[in-house]
């Protein structure tokens, strides 16, 4: 399966950003991509007033997918009562296939005060893969990715807005989450400051397949048979000792 990483800078308006996104998505389709991933909150960033434009952005993306057959994962900002929601919408030729709401909210960007946290993991079958969706700061919580892997997920798709200043951690987490779960990982970032960490595709061994550092698209071919083959040849999950990990279920504390 060919996946497109759309490394995109958010413009001054959602409409301008959407136009650039559609230009890159069309190029991805013309080059054979079946799936494309856009950044977290791609049309707006953290401009809360722009959440009003999200329904029209999603409608345009639905029309594009219906015309091209492409499936995409798009990070968007939505109104959620008095607060907002940081979401990843999976849009395909038949419309919206799934929606994931970010489960781990980042204090550095004021999300716990402005956003609602997601309550559910989201998986779906896509082009021979079982896909799990996460968003950016979720990468710091390996429990989420192990929970996905134990459900059979073999591809993580992660819209993100990760600062370049913490790029060392970004690359570490992307490669670790892939290697420890023997799954592919595709994480797509914003191109503009203060974000700008590279968009990455990582294989189930934790090896980098692709990096995109300037605005544009990158294409990577993923083999749906490889994670299962690796998990059989080098078994890890059967050696888990869940009886020792009960502390993970306790309420968080800070000392």
Summarize the topology.
Blueprint: E1 2-7, H1 14-30, E2 35-37, H2 54-68, E3 71-80, E4 83-92, E5 95-101, H3 111-114, E6 123-126, E7 129-133, H4 142-150, E8 155-159, H5 167-181, E9 184-188, E10 199-202, E11 208-212, E12 216-221, H6 226-233
Parallel strand pairs: 1-2, 2-3, 7-8, 8-9
Antiparallel strand pairs: 1-12, 3-4, 4-5, 6-7, 9-10, 10-11
Helix pairs in contact: 1-2
Structure write-up:
The radius of gyration is 17 Å and the shape is globular. The chain has helices spanning 14-30, 54-68, 111-114, 142-150, 167-181, 226-233, and strands at 2-7, 35-37, 71-80, 83-92, 95-101, 123-126, 129-133, 155-159, 184-188, 199-202, 208-212, 216-221. The strands form two sheets. It has a six-stranded mixed sheet, with helices on one face. A six-stranded mixed sheet has the order 6-7-8-9-10-11, with helices on one face. It is α/β, with parallel strands linked by helices. α1 runs parallel beside α2. The protein is built from six helices and twelve strands.
Question: In a nutshell, what does this entry contain?
Answer:
With 255 residues, the protein is an alpha/beta fold.
Tag the structure with descriptive keywords:
alpha/beta, six-stranded mixed beta sheet, 27% helix, globular
Biggest sheet strand line-up:
5-4-3-2-1-12
Query: What value does the average pLDDT take?
Result: 96
User: Strand portion, in percent?
Assistant: 25-35%
Low-pLDDT runs of 5+ residues are none
Note the gap between the termini: 45 Å
